[in-house]
Structures are given as structure tokens and as C-alpha cells.
Write a structure and sequence with these properties.
The structure is a single chain. By secondary structure, this protein is mainly alpha-helical. It has 2 domains: 105 residues, no CATH class; 127 residues, Orthogonal Bundle (Helix Hairpins). It has 6 helices and 4 strands, in the order H-H-H-H-E-E-H-E-E-H. A 4-stranded mixed β-sheet has the order 2-1-4-3. The two termini are 25 Å apart.
């Protein structure tokens, strides 16, 4: 049936059918509880810890490179001391001897400084390795926890996957029966209300889930199904109880 040929009653039926299907999808999602969020949080936490591990490993690589540089400095200093010591044996005066002594002294200080840095960098590497070991242990714990949570979630998903897939297809089918403006209004209301109910039936003279009574004249108008009526308090689209009962029966057969 083309959208233009739909009567107001057809639209109301399609809207209420869509609401019943979407509410069932909501129920299925609610059975998962906080599990999807818990899984996501654990995955983010593990990713953060792994990133931290990478940073620490990079720091260690840099420190090891610095230690290597300082060891090269020591070897260079030793070679220069040897060279200057040899040169001192062939000096012609005290001034040359003193000059070479100062060079030897400077290289000895360079060696001492390099050795000091090597000790400092070694201590830093040890500290970082301790942190890495603790982080690895934490990652292991989190991964075990994640594995259990995923297994739990997968079990729930496996139970409802087929039904949910069918419901999503039906939701799309019924959505196509509703004109774009009305569909947008339905989705906007659904996004605003806590329980996702955008289309409700009148119950005991009030809109479903509300304590505000609807004037009898308005209830009669809603029952004629000649126009789309919204609840002035909640903004929800209203349908009469008879239409709601008929559509519930139809959709329950679909669910079964």
C-alpha cells in the first residue's frame, strides 16, 4: 500500500505496531543490563594499560640507548687518557705536561659523570620494569574478567539474536508505512521519554503510564481515529483501547 493512500487509522495502527515491536527490542536490550557497557569499559581499560606498557617499553629502550652512549663515552675517555699519558712522557716542558694533566683530569671527570648517569638510568630501568610487571599482572586479571563478561554477554545475545534480527526487520517494514514527518515525531518522542513509549493507549481515562485524566469528549474523538492526537502532558501519541487490543493481538502472533 502506498503511503499516500493510508488513512489516519492506518497510520495509528502502523505507529502502534511499530511501538510494540520497538518496545520488545527495548525489553531484549534490557535483559543485557549493564553488560555491554561493562565489556566496553574493560576493553578501554585494557587498551589504556597496553598503551601505558608501550610507553614504558619505549622509555626503557631510550634509557638503554643512553647507557650505551655513556659506556661509549667511558671507552673514549679511557682511550684519550691512555693517549695523553703516553704524550706526557715526551713533553719538552712543564707547561705541556700540565696541559696534558688537565686533559687527563677532564676525561676522568667525564668518566665519573658517565658512570653516575649509568647508575641512575639502571635504577630507572629497574623501577619501570617493576611497574611493567604490575601492569602485565593487572592486564591479565582484566582480560580474564573481560573473557567471563563477553561469554555472559554472548550467551544472552545468542538466545535473542534471531528474534532481535526479525524484530529489526519488522520495525523497518512498519516504519516504511509511516510518513517521514510522523516517523520523525515518533522517534523524537521515543528519545525524550524514559521508557521509550511514544504511542500509548488510553487506560482508565488517562494516557498509558500517566495520572492525568483525559476529558471524555477527547476520548470519544480519539476513538473515531480521524486525527493524530497527542497527550498534552507527556507529548505521547494516543490510541483508543480497542485499536491497541487488536494490534497487540496481531503483534503477539508475530512474536510467537
Amino acid at each position: 500500500m502506498a503511503k499516500k493512500e493510508l488513512t489516519v487509522e492506518d497510520k495509528l495502527r502502523a505507529l502502534y505496531d511499530l511501538q510494540l515491536i520497538d518496545s520488545r527490542i527495548d525489553e531484549i536490550k534490557n535483559t543485557r543490563g549493564e553488560l555491554p557497557l561493562e565489556v566496553e569499559d574493560l576493553e578501554d581499560e585494557i587498551a589504556g594499560l597496553n598503551k601505558r606498557l608501550d610507553n614504558f617499553n619505549t622509555d626503557i629502550e631510550n634509557l638503554e640507548a643512553e647507557i650505551k652512549n655513556r659506556k661509549n663515552t667511558i671507552e673514549d675517555a679511557k682511550a684519550l687518557i691512555k693517549k695523553y699519558t703516553t704524550q706526557q712522557k715526551n713533553v719538552r716542558n712543564n707547561r705541556e705536561f700540565d696541559s696534558l694533566s688537565k686533559e687527563i683530569e677532564f676525561q676522568e671527570l667525564e668518566m665519573q659523570l658517565a658512570e653516575k648517569h649509568i647508575k641512575e638510568f639502571t635504577v630507572k630501568i629497574e623501577q619501570k620494569n617493576e611497574i611493567i610487571a604490575a601492569a602485565k599482572e593487572k592486564i591479565k586479571e582484566k582480560e580474564t574478567h573481560l573473557k567471563h563478561k563477553k561469554k555472559e554477554l554472548d550467551a544472552i545475545l545468542a538466545e535473542t539474536a534471531k528474534e532481535e534480527e526479525m524484530l529489526h526487520k519488522k520495525s523497518e517494514e512498519f516504519a516504511k508505512l509511516i510518513d517521514e514527518r510522523l516517523l520523525k515525531a515518533y522517534r523524537r518522542i521515543r528519545g525524550k521519554v524514559k521508557n521509550g513509549l511514544a504511542v500509548v493507549s488510553i487506560e482508565r481515562g488517562a494516557s498509558g503510564g500517566s495520572f492525568f485524566t483525559i476529558p471524555p469528549q477527547r476520548i470519544v474523538e480519539i476513538a473515531t481515529r480521524k486525527k493524530i492526537t497527542t497527550d498534552e502532558h507527556s507529548g505521547r501519541i494516543l490510541v483508543d483501547p480497542e485499536l491497541a487490543a487488536q494490534e497487540k493481538e496481531k503483534i503477539e502472533k508475530l512474536f510467537s
